[in-house]
Design goal:
The structure is a homotetramer. By secondary structure, chain A is an alpha/beta fold. Chain A folds into three domains: about 100 residues, Periplasmic binding protein-like II (D-Maltodextrin-Binding Protein, domain 2), CATH 3.40.190; about 80 residues, Periplasmic binding protein-like II (D-Maltodextrin-Binding Protein, domain 2, 3-Layer(aba) Sandwich), CATH 3.40.190.10; about 130 residues, Alpha-Beta Plaits (2-Layer Sandwich). Chain A is built from eleven helices and 15 strands. The longest helix of chain A is centred in the last third of the chain and has 15 residues. Chain A is elongated and about 85 Å long. Chain A starts with a helix and ends in a 7-residue tail after the last helix. The C terminus of chain A is likely disordered. Chains in contact: A-B, A-D, B-C, C-D. At the C-D interface, strand 4, helix 4, strand 8, helix 9 and strand 13 of C face strand 4, helix 4, strand 8, helix 9 and strand 13 of D.
């Protein structure tokens, strides 16, 4: 029983956030304790300390881009591993205290990312509104009930089931296909088994002393036929103009071509952080040309071993 | 005289922000009207409408990275031009209502970027604090006087000269060399003259139908000896996995190698947005090997013209 | 009438060689004087001096490779231009003085290239033969009649119509599809008109001071979508390990992508020799992706010109 | 004793050739039988059959380039290995029957490569001479005594000690630094030990179905920091435009970076023929940046193994 008590999952709360919706997609998390935390740092600290077995954190939004706080936290907290990827469609409603009408709305409370994603609708519908930033989409809504200065809030659909709020408008996101990508992060552990529809995430620093080193880095993938689905620069932070790159590559570390690309990266870069290989949320099998099949790599190694191992008494 | 009335400059207010400090570096702006606006969109709208001749906006922070809102706004508002670059050292103080002590601080109001840059100090000094996000560094401080829930705020040095606030701690930024990069944006106009220490900014979309297209794009610069000081991906927003790249290249559009790289980009990419060529803030002359000197480009063109123009009556 | 007397064409003789067969494919050469010369140097000297309007010379054989003497001569004699390309199927017969039988043959006279192309047949049929090298395929045959040491000669089909020789065997070439590629060379003149099925030949030296410079050179073509049909290294001759490259590229100097690749080459290389753009012998239209169409290049230039030409009084 | 009788070395004869001078540089060949053969095919056949333990063959000349016959023979005869490299300075004298003067010379007998290397001197000194090709430099000279049609011959210095001939001119080669590179070829056997100043030779075919495949092939070397000292195309022979590449790379198959490049080549190419790793004739240690040191490769493999081997019970 004590075992079970330890098995909790952390997520950016409060209840009702998109992050919670992502966690709801994890079969292993069902029936376990879910810890709502306030930020990515807390979520990862829970994992590092063993308070939670894993944490669900947002890593990229199809409209707003990479979540810098997550990317930077993953780059700085050692011994973490991404073990799963989850997609949550993102849409928004405008809510207000009961009795408020659209015409009454002058100030809107919203998490900055949510605000950015509804900007067109807001500019068209409420051209003179002001904005108060909130720390989460749910907080934006709930603080309306605390009597804050805002007249309305941008919140996830369904918020009105949890709080006594009226929905003024639905589907106010500028992009109806918006989606947020979440990753489930645990302490360093066995890499999840290869499924054929996998993704490998790394964070790579470029060597300082070589011009064209980004090109050289990308060639480590290209010469092994490994496609990249994400490449994002983040400042290392010590000086303007020095970057690390957050990279998602198609395939699994147990795929020969990915393993070989990682070897190339490691030789090339002063710092490569392996964040994990894990099944893709979209379960789409990785496509690659047969030149880069495992067999080709294994055959080449056997060929080389045979050449090096030649001895004079042989054929 | 009516002319002079129109010459105003917009910046992200209120007075006292780092953006205002950047604008103070612009000789042409001295003695002109300065308009404090609430966000990047407003600043650029002022420029587009002609309300202001130019707007100062933050584009990158050495610790926090690219300013997404700025990058996305520049990608979507047509006919803008970056005409100057300015660097402002970034440091922070913790301020509170007079009488408050460090030991009293439970909730800190701060702009998210400022908050991120002081995280280590906060976690060490105030391990149990909460965070309320503000829309600007100055607003964070000034709202303390409006009696908001926060006990303290992160603000720029000198804030206590403007508001009746006590400084609880100085130099609380995690990186003493932190700097923010600002750009001055005008309507499309003549490109500023080449100084030899210039930067050229573009936003480039990758063609969809070619794998390895990021590599191909970077080669457009590499084969002309043009170094990049910034490359940052931003989602195009129509689907997960589709990116545009914000790029700062060394040199000026009137440098032959830069012009030729732009030609290559334009042929390669379905969409290239030229944001401008302008003097670098650090005034450091561009270094490049003599293989890529203007003379080499001009000589090659003369050679080619001579070859194509051959006629049978010639020698 | 004096004009007509000057219009002669040089070729590697004597009459009956494959080179003469190549010249027979040139409509302009019909009814003109044909000068049989002894080597490539003489042929080019005829062109340089004006003794002939053009010379037909072998440049590559599908079995034996590039003709070094031709490649080196083109690299060293200035102001020449390739104006046409011709293919001649290459096959061989074994001839002897009348009365000789295969069983009598101990020594075979043959031009070294012809000898190399018949080696398998010779080794199977005449395992103990010796070889005397000849300066041309026809000379090999004709010298049999001068009573030289050889018992048989390798010669082009049809040789027995010209000389009193018996054919001992036909079709003795090892590769029934063997073909030799010839080029027609004139003094520097107008580039032949673009046909859409053209080839451009250059000789390029690599810069000494850059490792990986062959890769860089090839990228000048690759980044413009220009395919290469031939790349052959030849020693520059001043030191072991220093090479120039003989290159045939798909397309015509008046194709924008080819012209731009030539510009790139010229900027990159200490020495680029343009040998000409001319219709391909096989008349196969050049294939290239629409990214590299002339329109794309022209559009990009117009775009750049517009950007550079911005002036403050404009929109 | 029977053992010793078998230990012979083959070389392109007759005695006095540059090939014999190369063989004289091989310590192991001293005091053993030397077999003079007529061509490269015979030399390699001796090795394959076991008649000789090794054969010395010319592979490249600093003026005339790669020796096609050698390159093609190495590509087609299986189970051979290059085990050593030797350089022989190449210079020439003009010899004639005693009593002949320079003014008498009308026809010159010379091996075509030797003839090519003396062309400038001949054209300046004997502008109206004719040329008879010989099968070796020594044969050219010796056949003068057989009363052939030639008046003089191009031969290696020292020929007058062996034959009753008069030297008409010395140092007639156009390039005083001309050198020929020879390789010693044995049957497949243990690779010679790594010396730090080694060369690795391979013959590589390009995949047919990929444009830009030469570029891709070169990147296999470039991404591992392996420099090439020779790259030469040879027709595969089945169709015009299909080539294999003869490549000399700096380093030894037991160098990690070279082994990894060979793996990359083998995965990429439909056919890679490893010709051997052997000490360079010039004994110049290979230079490469420390990024490509063995330790870097070994360290990267250990890192990868550790990542893949993670198990849940671990740290």
């Amino acid at each position: 029983m004590s075992e079970t008590r330890n098995v909790s999952y952390s997520f950016l709360g409060p209840a009702g956030t998109f992050t919670e919706a992502a966690l709801a997609q994890v079969p292993e998390a069902r029936g376990k304790a879910w810890r709502a935390v306030n930020n990515v740092g807390e979520a990862l600290a829970d994992v590092v300390s063993g308070r939670s077995v894993a944490a669900m954190i947002a890593i990229e939004n199809s409209v707003d881009g990479g979540v810098s706080a997550t990317q930077d936290a993953l780059a700085s907290v050692p011994n973490l591993r991404i073990i799963g990827e989850y997609l949550v469609p993102v849409n928004f409603v405008l809510v207000a205290r009961p009795g408020t009408t659209l015409a009454d709305v002058r100030v809107v409370n919203a998490h900055p990312v949510a605000y950015a994603q509804c900007r067109s609708w807001l500019e068209a519908t409420l051209p003179h509104h002001g904005h108060i930033p909130a720390s989460s989409n749910v907080t934006a809504a709930s603080s309306l009930l605390d009597g804050d200065q805002a007249d309305a809030a941008i919140a996830p659909p369904g918020i009105d089931k949890r709080y006594n709020l009226a929905v003024l408008a639905t589907g106010i996101g500028d992009n109806p296909n918006a989606v947020t990508r979440f990753v489930l992060v645990s302490r360093r552990a066995a890499v999840p088994a290869r499924t054929g529809a996998d993704k490998t995430s790394v964070i790579v620093e470029l060597p300082e002393d070589r011009p064209g080193s980004l090109l050289d880095m990308l060639e480590q993938f290209a010469t092994r036929g490994v496609n990249l689905s994400l490449i994002q620069s983040r400042p290392i932070g010590d000086a303007m103009g020095r970057y690390r790159f957050v990279i998602d590559a198609d395939g699994h570390i147990q795929d020969e071509r990915v393993a070989d690309a990682l070897l190339g990266l490691r030789r090339f870069s002063p710092k490569v952080l392996f964040l994990g290989s894990y099944p893709r949320a979209d379960k789409r099998p990785i496509e690659f040309t047969s030149h880069y099949d495992d067999d080709v790599f294994i055959g080449a190694r056997a060929w080389l071993k045979d050449l090096i191992g030649d001895d004079p008494s042989g054929t």
